[in-house]
Specification:
Blueprint (H helix, E strand, L loop, with lengths): L11 H16 L12 E6 L5 H12 L3 E5 L13 H8 L5 E6 L4 H8 L4 E6 L5 H15 L5 E6 L6 H10 L5 E6 L8 H9 L5 E4 L2 H4 L5 E4 L10 H7 L7 H4 L7 E3 L20 H19 L5
Parallel strand pairs: 1-2, 1-3, 3-4, 5-6, 5-8, 6-7, 8-9
Helix pairs in contact: 1-5, 1-11, 2-11, 3-4, 5-6, 5-11
C-alpha cells in the first residue's frame, strides 16, 4: 500500500507514468468511466478548500466511484477533540482511499502511519501540496512539451506557499531548470528551501523583488496569493497583500509563449484583464488537476484499465 505525502514519493519514471496516464485519461475519458465502480474516496478536509476538494470528488465520480467526507474540522469529530490517528482508523472502515487536507504540517503523514487505506496529502499547512504540484507539472508538460530546459518565475508568497515549496522540490530533478524567486523581503523563500534544496543540488536561481525585472526571461510565471490565513497579524497581511499585481502592461514585458500559472484562489494578484491573454493558463490548469487526480487514484488503488 502506497501513500502520497510529497511529489518525491514518486521517482521521475513513476511521475512520467502517472502523467502519461493522466494524458490518456484526458484523451479517452470514456475508457476510464467505470474504473472505480464500487470504490469510495473519503475527503477529510480540516481546512477550507474549493478546487482541491471538488477536484478530488470530480475525479472519483468521473471514475465511477463514490465520495464521502467532511469539508471542515467543525463538521467532524475533530471539534470534539478526536485525534487524526483515530479519525483515519475510522475512515479506513468506510472508504478505499482518503484525501486529507490539514492546517498542521505533517498531519497527513501521521494519518498515513495509522491508516488501513492509501492516504493522499491534499495540503498540510505551509509544507507540501503534492497533487497541486502534479497538476502544475502536467500543465507545464502538456503546454510546453517537456519539464526540462525552462526558467520558472515564482512570485508572491514564497515563505508560506506550500505550492511553491512542492514545485521546487519536484522540478529540481529535471535538466536545466532555473528559478527566479520574486518576493518582498518578508515573504522570501525559507532558508531550508534555499540551502537544502536549491544550493545543495546546485540549482541555478536568483532572487529579485520587482516582477518587472524578471518578466522578460521567464518561460513560466507562477503567481501566488498572499495568504491571510498564514499571517499572525492583520496589519502585515494588509501591507503585503497587493505587493504584486500582474496586469496587461506587465504582460507586454513577457515572452510571447510564456505561460501564467496560479494554484488559485486568486484575489488581486492577477488582474481580470489578463484572463483573455492566450498565455493565461490557470483555468486550463484546473482541468488538468482533475485528470492528474484521476490518474493518482487509479495508481494508488492499483487499478489498471
Amino acid at each position: 500500500m502506497r501513500h502520497l505525502m510529497s511529489p518525491l514519493d514518486f521517482s521521475v519514471d513513476e511521475l512520467e507514468d502517472l502523467l502519461n496516464l493522466a494524458g490518456d485519461i484526458e484523451k479517452n475519458p470514456a475508457k476510464y468511466a467505470g474504473a472505480c465502480r464500487g470504490k469510495k474516496l473519503a475527503t477529510c478536509f480540516y481546512e477550507p478548500s474549493t478546487r482541491t476538494r471538488l477536484s478530488f470528488e470530480a475525479a472519483m465520480l468521473n471514475l465511477g466511484g463514490s465520495v464521502l467526507g467532511f469539508a471542515s474540522s467543525d463538521s467532524s469529530s475533530a471539534a470534539k477533540g478526536e485525534s487524526i490517528s483515530d479519525t483515519i482508523r475510522v475512515v479506513s472502515c468506510y472508504a478505499d482511499i482518503c484525501a486529507m487536507r490539514h492546517p498542521k504540517e505533517g498531519a497527513a503523514l501521521v494519518a498515513s502511519q495509522r491508516s488501513g487505506i492509501p492516504v493522499i496529502n491534499a495540503g498540510d499547512g505551509g509544507h507540501q501540496h503534492p497533487t497541486q504540484t502534479l497538476t502544475d507539472m502536467m500543465t507545464i508538460r502538456s503546454l510546453k512539451g517537456s519539464l526540462g530546459n525552462i526558467t520558472i518565475g515564482l512570485c508572491g508568497d514564497l515563505k508560506f506557499g506550500r505550492t511553491v515549496h512542492s514545485l521546487i522540490n519536484a522540478m529540481i530533478r529535471y535538466p536545466n531548470v532555473k528559478f527566479v524567486l520574486i518576493s518582498p523581503e518578508e515573504l522570501k523563500i525559507p532558508d531550508y528551501i534555499r540551502e537544502d534544496v536549491l544550493r545543495a543540488n546546485s540549482i541555478e536561481f536568483e532572487e529579485v523583488e520587482r516582477l518587472e525585472d524578471a518578466m522578460g526571461q521567464l518561460d513560466i510565471l507562477y503567481m501566488t496569493r498572499v495568504q491571510r490565513e498564514r499571517f499572525f497579524n492583520e496589519e502585515d497581511y494588509i501591507r503585503l497583500k497587493d505587493y504584486y499585481v500582474l496586469t496587461k502592461k506587465k504582460m507586454k514585458l513577457a515572452k510571447q509563449d510564456m505561460l501564467v500559472l496560479h494554484p488559485l484562489p486568486r484575489v488581486n494578484e492577477i488582474s481580470v484583464e489578463v484572463d483573455d491573454d492566450p498565455r493565461a493558463a490557470y483555468f486550463r490548469q484546473v482541468q488538468y488537476g482533475v485528470y492528474v487526480r484521476m490518474a493518482l487514484i487509479l495508481t494508488l488503488l492499483e487499478i489498471t484499465v
